[in-house]
């Protein structure tokens, strides 16, 4: 019995020993790679791990300085790269592009190859490197700008620009120019070939990869192209935006047709570029200088305009498609966006003057020099004027004394039913323009009088009845600032085009101004022409200074509303006497 028990104990011990051996074996199998991996990294902590080669040279266990020595002693730096085609040969001297092998980066790549990834990847690389050596390509540096310039020059000598097919327009007859094929260097592929040569130190002649570009048409494509052109022959496209309008003629449209179907967007884009400066404007920053109760300098901020080019290209392409279908094409509005200025009115003043609230304009073509001078002087006297909320503006007070003593010249004025030379002729051009700006702004008009006679200057680009005469001290033009903010008057004097503009700046309170079209309710014919002697003109010279005008009664209504509520309403009635044409007749001896 004791023997059986001893036998069982020995079997158990034997079994346990076997388990222990297995466990130890497993632990050794599991930990040995770890010891090997970490041991290898420790032993080669500042060296390249074994079985690594650069350009055929074994750099196992190398430190950085050893790799530098090897590059200096064993690796030859090439002198040039030779590029060839079937007809030509080109050389790039490597010293001119500052070619150098980059030892630092090459060592870093070799050193980090076994250290820059996850544990199991690095382990696998170390073990596999003992079977198959690792090859690390040498890194290099060069002046890419100079290198690209060399390639660009070489490319320009090899490349041949293709000629695209075009429609030939001879009167109403259309034909097709088939174009011709071209070629260009595949620069990306060429760079890759050169980089491969640098890394592999394989400096044999490199064949330049060339791509053929052939836009020419076969007979079927040519006929389709011609058919499309015939469909569009004689047709046009109208583009418009605000005051701008452009007609795209048949010859231009022919260039928009792509020979291979669809439309040539690059050509449409170039065409848009040819006129965009007539549509686009740059935003204008605000300048505002207030001193001594008056604005000394004011440049209002203005939004710029920029064409939405992609949308316009798409719209023109769609319009061409409509024309090809035989349908009628409406004018195409040029899509545009507003571009904001960097500095706005509100950022440069504390008076609440933030935006343009009204504008008026008038023209004075045919005015004599004295009158033109006086218009500029009087407009400068009201420009910069500030009107506080609730304040009434008087034109005569703002302009001040009108005489030769204050800088005015003599010009023809209407006085006592006669046209005579008087100080300040032309001042009423300014009051008239201001009247129109105030109407447009929706402000309350306190006092306004029409001229006794219809004056041709005030009806250039305007209907009758929109004038305001002034004559200090009896006749004035006045209006009230009934907005909650200050108002600023600005004038734009443009004598070269005989134009005056008055702008009113403030802050909109959502009011809307409207004027009905002036209606002439009765007319009276003008008297006979009047000739007046002028000693400043040579004998025999006749110059017309005023034009005949029928007498008339003109009426228009002026209404200002806000959110449906009427703020101000007035009927303006102008009674004009008939007026004769007036001529100056020279009396000065020649």
TrEMBL record:
Keywords: Membrane, Transmembrane, Transmembrane helix. The keyword NAD does not apply. It comes from the Bacteria. Residues 91-206, 223-321 form the YoaR-like putative peptidoglycan binding domain. The chain crosses the membrane at residues 20-44. Pfam families: PG_binding_4, VanW. InterPro entries: Glycopeptide_resist_protein, Vancomycin_resist_VanW, YoaR-like_PG-bd. This is VanW family protein. The lineage of its organism: Bacteria, Candidatus Woeseibacteriota.
């Amino acid at each position: 019995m004791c023997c059986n028990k001893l036998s069982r104990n020995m079997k158990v011990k034997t079994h346990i020993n076997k388990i222990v051996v297995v466990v130890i074996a497993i632990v050794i199998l599991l930990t040995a790679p770890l010891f090997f991996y970490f041991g290898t990294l420790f032993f080669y902590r500042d060296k390249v791990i074994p079985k690594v080669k650069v350009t055929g040279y074994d750099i196992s266990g190398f430190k950085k300085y050893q790799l530098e020595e090897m590059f200096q002693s064993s690796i030859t730096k090439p002198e040039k790269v030779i590029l060839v085609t079937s007809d030509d040969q080109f050389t790039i001297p490597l010293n001119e592009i500052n070619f150098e092998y980059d030892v630092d980066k090459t060592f870093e790549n070799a050193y980090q190859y076994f250290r820059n990834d996850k544990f199991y990847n690095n382990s696998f690389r170390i073990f596999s490197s003992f079977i198959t050596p690792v090859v690390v390509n040498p890194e290099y540096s060069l002046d890419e700008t100079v290198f690209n310039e060399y390639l660009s020059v070489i490319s320009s000598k090899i490349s041949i620009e293709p000629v695209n097919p075009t429609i030939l327009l001879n009167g109403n007859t259309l034909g097709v120019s088939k174009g011709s094929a071209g070629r260009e260097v595949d620069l990306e592929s060429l760079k890759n070939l050169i980089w491969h040569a640098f890394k592999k130190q394989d400096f044999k002649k490199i064949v330049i990869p060339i791509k053929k570009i052939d836009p020419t048409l076969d007979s079927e494509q040519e006929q389709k192209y011609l058919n499309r052109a015939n469909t569009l022959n004689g047709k046009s496209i109208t583009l418009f935006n605000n005051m701008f309008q452009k007609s795209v003629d048949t010859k231009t449209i022919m260039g928009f047709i792509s020979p291979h179907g669809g439309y040539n967007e690059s050509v449409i884009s170039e065409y848009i570029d040819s006129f965009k400066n007539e549509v686009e404007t740059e935003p204008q920053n605000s300048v505002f200088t207030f001193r001594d109760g008056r604005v000394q300098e004011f440049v209002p901020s203005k939004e710029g305009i920029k064409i939405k080019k992609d949308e316009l290209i798409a719209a023109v392409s769609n319009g061409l498609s409509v024309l090809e279908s035989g349908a009628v094409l409406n004018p195409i509005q040029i899509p545009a966006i507003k571009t904001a200025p960097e500095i706005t009115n509100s950022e440069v003043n504390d008076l609440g003057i933030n935006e343009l609230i009204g504008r008026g304009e008038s023209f004075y073509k045919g005015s004599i020099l004295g009158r033109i001078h006086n218009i500029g002087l009087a407009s400068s006297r009201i420009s910069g004027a500030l009107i506080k909320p609730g304040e009434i503006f008087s034109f005569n007070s703002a302009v001040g004394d009108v005489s030769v003593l204050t800088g005015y010249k003599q010009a023809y004025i209407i006085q006592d039913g006669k046209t005579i030379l008087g100080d300040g002729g032309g001042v009423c051009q300014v009051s008239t323009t201001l009247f129109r700006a105030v109407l447009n702004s929706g402000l309350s008009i306190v006092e306004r009088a029409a001229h006794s006679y219809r004056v041709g200057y005030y009806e250039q680009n305007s209907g009758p009845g929109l004038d305001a005469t002034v004559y200090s001290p009896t006749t004035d033009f006045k209006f009230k600032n009934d907005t909650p903010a200050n108002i600023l008057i600005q004038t734009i004097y443009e004598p070269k085009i005989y134009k005056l503009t008055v702008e009113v700046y403030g802050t909109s309170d959502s009011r809307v101004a409207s004027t009905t079209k002036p209606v002439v309710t009765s007319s009276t014919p003008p008297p006979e022409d009047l000739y007046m002697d002028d000693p400043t003109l040579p004998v025999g010279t006749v110059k017309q200074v005023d034009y005949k005008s029928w007498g008339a009664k003109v009426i228009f209504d002026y209404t200002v509303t806000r959110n449906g509520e009427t703020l101000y309403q007035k009927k303006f009635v102008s009674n004009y006497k008939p007026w004769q044409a007036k001529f100056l007749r020279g009396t000065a001896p020649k």
